[in-house]
Design goal:
Length: 307
């Protein structure tokens, strides 16, 4: 998955020898095979309700993610070993479109990027505090000493040097349970279950028929109404650069990657694709996931048109 950006390395064969029964015994050094320890904050539930305590929710999220590392045993022992060294987690998110439409924010606007930046700044701060609390309770990850958390370079590299970051720099310098804390995965199936939009991407389609593994249902946004419908658009109906702007705003506060799906028309020219790819690079996106293409021509009896 392109949201996971961690230190990785290939296995090194240390020794091979023949034992007394004729078996070839290979001794391998393996440190650097990482796994995805992921969960997604449901943004429209957490930030769409003033009564929700963000820190409490993120504390629970990080405890559960950290417990996955402690309790799970991977099929490949190298992955278990690396998990225990870095205790890396990927606290992600879904439902950004659902949240913004509920608040009357257009995706094609500067307001959308600013709103996204504020949300993910709060999320990062809550994640740092949650991981620090676990470190004070259970100990920091083995490679904490001399890490960017310990030295403060995590904050310096991102220009998080204002007074608002001082309490978090102080916490991180004393202990962090997890070497990596944020990663945003694609969440198409999970988002249907949670009645929200996938990841922090625009919608592939606003109203559509889901046909998968025997499932055949019409999917309508959970908050779709006369009030919110004006803010809903398919990603194919918009300039993809708006989505890149939104993801860029979140990426500032995500230490790993964001699996962003691009939405472009099949008729797109190479020069336009270059503009988008270079734009994503200049705006410091670490990764791009799938690039979806569509003609986006709808029949007269299409479900969205009927809606």
């Amino acid at each position: 998955m392109s949201e996971i950006i961690q230190n990785m390395d290939y296995d090194k064969i240390i020794n091979e020898e023949l034992d007394e029964k004729g078996f070839v015994v290979t001794k391998v050094y393996g440190e650097g095979l990482v796994t995805c320890n992921l969960s997604s904050l449901v943004l429209h539930n957490v930030f769409g309700n003033d009564d929700v305590d963000l820190q409490r929710v993120v504390d629970i999220q990080f405890r559960m993610l950290d417990n996955v590392i402690s309790l799970n045993r991977t099929v490949v022992p190298q992955a278990t070993h690396t998990n225990n060294l870095y205790r890396a987690v990927g606290a992600g998110a879904l439902g950004l479109v659902t949240l913004m439409t509920s608040k009357g924010i257009k995706w094609e606007s500067e307001e959308a990027s600013k709103f996204t930046e504020e949300i993910f700044k709060k999320y990062l701060k809550a994640g740092i505090e949650a991981s620090h609390k676990l470190a004070m309770e259970k100990g920091s990850y083995p490679y904490f000493e001399g890490s960017d958390w310990n030295t403060g370079e995590f904050f310096d590299k991102r220009n998080f040097v204002s007074d608002e970051w001082l309490p978090y720099r102080e916490m991180a310098s004393k202990g962090m349970r997890n070497g990596y804390i944020n990663a945003i995965a694609p969440t198409s199936s999970n988002s249907i279950i949670m009645n929200g939009s996938p990841s922090i991407d625009p919608l592939y389609e606003v109203v559509y028929r889901e046909e998968k593994s025997g499932l055949n249902v019409i999917i309508v946004p959970s908050n779709y109404s006369n009030k919110t419908k004006w803010y809903y658009k398919s990603g194919f109906q918009m300039d993809e650069m708006w989505a890149i702007n939104v993801v860029s705003a979140a990426q500032k506060y995500v230490d790993q990657g964001i699996s962003h799906n691009m939405h472009v028309l099949k008729s797109i020219k190479a020069s336009e694709m270059l503009r988008l790819d270079l734009g994503a690079w200049k705006k410091q996106l670490k990764t791009i996931y799938y690039t979806y293409t569509e003609d986006y021509e709808r029949d007269e009896n299409c479900i969205y048109c009927e809606a």
